[in-house]
Amino acid sequence: MDRPSTPHSSNFGAGTSGRVSPRVVDIMSRTKGWVRFIAVMLFVNFGLTLINTIVTLNAPSKFGGDAERVGQIIGVAVMLLLYLYPAVKLNSYASRIGVLLQSGRASDLDAALNEHRAFWRYVGIVAIVLMSLMLVGIFFGIAFAASRARF
């Protein structure tokens, strides 16, 4: 049986005063450190990937030429961008939680949850794109294998 829908309110977890309940503040407080940790790990991954790319592109190569280097640069640039945006969003989420912990206002909870929403929206879009690319790759792989098969 479906539950009746309730309209969204900016006072979720808040009393009539626009203040967030102590339970919600406690939950957000315990969440903040883990969010910041993952954001820092994404920034570290971004930095290490950037350093690795610079070293790799400056190393002499026995294989390929300029076309391969351009392909490497494009591939790594895409990967760097895939890591940077979620790191920024999670860092913003942790910062907004910090503001909420100081103020206890429902509007600050809204701001924190909006950063959280933006992070998961991005992750969802990336997942859809990557799954679609995998399906296309599988299709072309099967088509190529079928064209090479000898019956």
What does this entry look like structurally?
With 151 residues, the protein is mainly alpha-helical. The protein has one domain. It is built from 3 helices and no strands. 11% of the residues are buried.
The number of domains is: 1
Q: Helix- and strand-based class?
A: mainly alpha
Beta strands, count? 0
Beta content: under 5%
Quaternary organisation: single chain
- What is the helix content? over 70%
Shape: elongated
Report the span from N to C terminus.
Answer: 55 Å
Taking pLDDT < 50 over at least 5 consecutive residues as the criterion, the unreliable ranges are: 1-15
**Main pleated-sheet profile:** none
DSSP helical segment count: 3
Computed over alpha carbons, the radius of gyration is: 23 Å
Return the string of H and E elements.
HHH
Task: Determine the mean pLDDT.
Answer: 85
Topology at a glance:
Blueprint: H1 22-58, H2 66-103, H3 106-148
Quick synopsis:
The chain is mainly α.
Features:
elongated, mainly alpha, 151 residues, 0% strand
